Amino acid sequence: MPLPTILSAILGLSTPWKVTNLSFSNNYKRLEISVDFSQEDNPACQQCGALDQCTEKESCSWFNKDFFSYETYLHSRSPRNPCCSTGGKIIPPWVQKGSKFVAI
After folding, report:
1. CA gap 38, 72 in Å, rounded
2. What does each C-alpha distance from 9 to 1, 5, 27, 68 come to in angstroms?
3. Of the residues 7, 73, 90, 102, which has the fewest C-beta atoms closer than 10 A?
4. Dihedral angle at the C-alpha atoms of 77, 95, 103, 40, nearest 10 degrees?
5. Rg of the chain on CA atoms, in Å
6. What spatial distance separates the first Cα and last Cα of the chain, rounded to whole Å?
7. So what's the pLDDT on residue 48?
8. What average pLDDT does range 50-79 have in this prediction?
9. CA 42 → CA 1, 25, 76, 95, 99, distances in Å?
10. Dihedral (C-alpha) 53, 55, 58, 62: value to the nearest 10 degrees?
11. Higher-confidence residue: 96 or 67?
């Protein structure tokens, strides 16, 4: 099974999220993961369920100091749906409750 598929499962990714790039340094004990979402299948608003309205897609990064004994940096665009008065920020799967990834 390809490593991006394995990491997608571990991170809890499902459509539209996908691992797009990996960089691994055994010497530095460091893993870099890039995740993105499909433009054709934007994430639904987690507050009202609205689809296909993502407008903002700012680049964000998260850090986990011990992801399989490696410092791990995860990079992704962070979508936002303008449908809700609270801003409609989409919370990606890797920062859901219990996750050890923190925004940097």
Report:
1. 23
2. 11, 6, 25, 14
3. 102
4. 0
5. 14
6. 31
7. 73
8. 84
9. 26, 32, 14, 18, 23
10. -10
11. 67
The predicted model scores a pTM of: 0.81
CA distance 102 to 71: 12
Q: How far apart are CA 82 and CA 73, in angstroms?
A: 28
Q: Is 103 exposed, middle or buried (0-12, 13-18, 19+ CB in 10 A)?
A: exposed
pLDDT tens track for 14-54: 888 899 999 989 899 999 999 988 766 666 676 777 665 66
Q: How far apart are CA 29 and CA 73, in angstroms?
A: 11
Tokens 């996750």, located at residue: 99
pLDDT value of residue 20: 93
70 pLDDT above the threshold of 60: yes
**Beta-carbon count within 10 A of 101 CB:** 21
Q: Is residue 51 a contact partner of residue 39, using CB atoms and an 8 Å limit?
A: no
